Amino acid sequence: MEGEWPIVKRPVWAVSKEGPRLEERPVVLEEPLALYINGQQAAVLMRLPGMEKELAVGFCLSEGLVRRFADILMVHHCGQGLPEPGTEVQDEGLLSRNRVDVRVAPEGLDPSARLEVVRLIRAGCGAVDVARAELPLEPLSAHLTVPAELLLGLGRALRQGPSLHEAVGGVHSAALFDASGALIALAEDVGRHNAVDKVIGHCVLKGIPLGDKILLCSGRLSYEMVSKALRMRIPILISLSAPTALAVALAERFGQTLIGYLRGERMILYAHAERVRSSASA
Hints:
Blueprint: E1 7-16, E2 19-28, E3 31-37, E4 40-47, H1 52-62, E5 72-76, H2 92-96, E6 99-104, H3 116-122, E7 146-147, H4 148-152, H5 154-158, H6 164-167, E8 172-177, E9 183-189, H7 192-206, E10 214-217, H8 223-231, E11 236-239, H9 245-254, E12 257-263, E13 266-271, E14 276-277
Helix pairs in contact: 1-7, 8-9
């Protein structure tokens, strides 16, 4: 499995009380991915190679750059394989693997989408105020409920199977589960945002609905992470780490269940706990 992972081996000095020792250690690759929409560069994402189409589609939709998946007419990525050490971004073939072209119907583009953060910051006259911000998001419905025991077990499910994080480190994970706790999609990346976009893009490309799913992330839940999940109508967002105050306020306003510090048999419910059914054992 390791041979398929986007890693390279580097000589390092391992220092301990016994003294220094020269070793060869694997490290994860990090490369820029240029995203072009209708021939214009829209973003450069520093990412772990792999799932480039999924990342591009997930980013376009979760950032609101494209209104609907139906508006995406074509996604093209021609890169293949992994680069040799020292040649990651030098030859023409490898440069092509670091570009994705997306063709979108003109009416499906939302050129103002990336200004939401600016509108949010300015809405409170110098202070961040989610309640007064004009965000083009719709509140989520509250029909989905899940047992607390199921959610407490998702951390173990995230660690099942081969993991680049366990083998090498340096990456974040994102996983999507259904209401029964079954794993739908899993992705790893050097950036927590990218891991989420890869999972979202995978599901969208496969026609898997997101409105009744649970998204679990390894990293901090920021404003951007919550807004991505809200745009994709994901009702329950969980992290092994902590949310920010702005993320909690955003989830509270738009009806998203936000959970942090999912560790062992404990978790903290920060917003809309009504989706979590408690029991004596939980």
